[in-house]
Amino acid sequence: xxxxARIPAALQALGPVADRDVCVLDGADGVLPGQLLxxxxxxxxxxxxxxxxxxxIPDDRADVLVSGWTGFRPGTPEWDEQLGAARRVLRPDGRLxxxxxYGRDEVTGLFADPERAAERVSWSRPSGPxxxxxxxxxxxxxxxxxxxxxxxxxxxxxxxxxxGAAVAAxxxxxxxxxxxxxxxxxxxxxxxxxxTGAATGSPPKxxxxxxxxxRHAAPPxxxxxxx
Length: 227
Fold this sequence. Notes:
With 227 residues, the chain is α/β, with parallel strands linked by helices. The chain has helices at 6-14, 32-38, 51-55, 79-89, 114-123, 149-169, 192-196, 220-225, and strands spanning 21-25, 42-45, 62-68, 90-101, 136-145, 175-186.
């Protein structure tokens, strides 16, 4: 839906990803790995953000770790474990980039879920689970766009039923405002996760002072294809 490619552009600005080793979670079947590859990243799509997936990534494997939408969800049993794993797999000045819906937009209404909407709002508060442990947030103003209103009505109705039809009936243009949050955290010798004690199960690493050179084992296209 991000026809203007604002999400990969933001990841490049916050990473960056070009000419760096990038692990993408939740992206094996999506478009995000390909977009980051096109930006010059050495991309490895590694599936979901489950404990088994993260455990399979070697220490100091990535300069950038990207999680798209389903991983790193505050309040879940996996939250602390995932934060600890991020510290382990990222190199000394690596970046953790977590993509979620920001809420407060037209797309949120499609889910007809007040609890979900309130949860997204709470995540981005200064004292919330992300910013409270040192993350920063960049909010992207994106769009769900269609070629025509008729196409929008058809897709929203088929995908979201009566709620989608009701939202489509209010549209005057074939698009819905969609805000995306990129929560980003820089790792370092005394990064925020360690300083706050928010992540557990991953002891501090010695010598986290400089970034290793990218460990490229193959050209970028092969790197992605072999993921």
